[in-house]
Amino acid sequence: MPARKTSSERTAQQLLIQELQRLHAEAGLSYRELAAETNYDASYLNRVVNGKSNASPEVMGSLDRIYGTGSLLVGLWELTKSAGVLGYFQKFAAIAAQAASRADYHASLVPGIYQTAGYARELLSTRPWRTAEEVETFVEDRLRRQEPLSGDAPILARVVLDEAVLLRALGDKGAWAEQVNHLIECAQRPNITLQVLPLGSGSHYHVGGGVSLVWLPKGKCVGYVEGNSSGQMVDDPSEVELMRLGYDQIRDRSLSPDESLRMLRKLQVDGGLCGES
């Protein structure tokens, strides 16, 4: 049986945030000045320092250089890299936190950035030998990564849900109702376009898995493909273009946003889900 992880990972995350905040305060630099020194976006650096976005070893290395702290922050980041987000997802999560816009699709589940706590908790609990404490750490991180979708300056986002996702309810009916209500609320936000891909739409390039595309402020696009228990970041321009064209296939075969919202509302009523959006 694999060894179980301990709560020391969460402690390391808290220590990293404390050190980032202490060093930032002592340096006396504004986030705009810090951005000029590191070539990272000021708002992204603000979220990293305050523990609201995932970082990367490259970001930590830049801050170590500016603060003159050797490899302190990189070392702390290494201690936290397995907490809250899977190792193979780390780099993409750090890049996605800087995105100006994004597009997501999944064939069998609600993409993480649109999951409620209850939905994420049930999904994450299916992995053998994962403790309840570890599940909560993952849930907290997943919810934190959703912050760019809301707030004063939310990013533009598109999500396509395969109809199969809506037919696979959770075991916890209350959590499933909450998830459907959340999707209805997201579909009505001005910065989010939500569509449903009907089961009868035929095969497409991304059939069977999940895909995310994020566009950075300067226009670069990075992709991520996800399977059941693994994933891969894609930044080769030709491969990213294939992913984008495949996503266009999905989008073009999907119901319109209004039709998709009506489907969600029908699911809410026919499924006997409680609450109104």
TrEMBL record:
InterPro entries: Cro/C1-type_HTH (IPR001387), DUF5753 (IPR043917), Lambda_DNA-bd_dom_sf (IPR010982)
Residues in HTH cro/C1-type domain copies: 20-73
Coiled coil: none
Highest taxon of the lineage: Bacteria
TM ranges: none
GO molecular function: DNA binding
The protein's name in its UniProt record: Transcriptional regulator
Species whose genome carries this gene: Streptomyces gougerotii
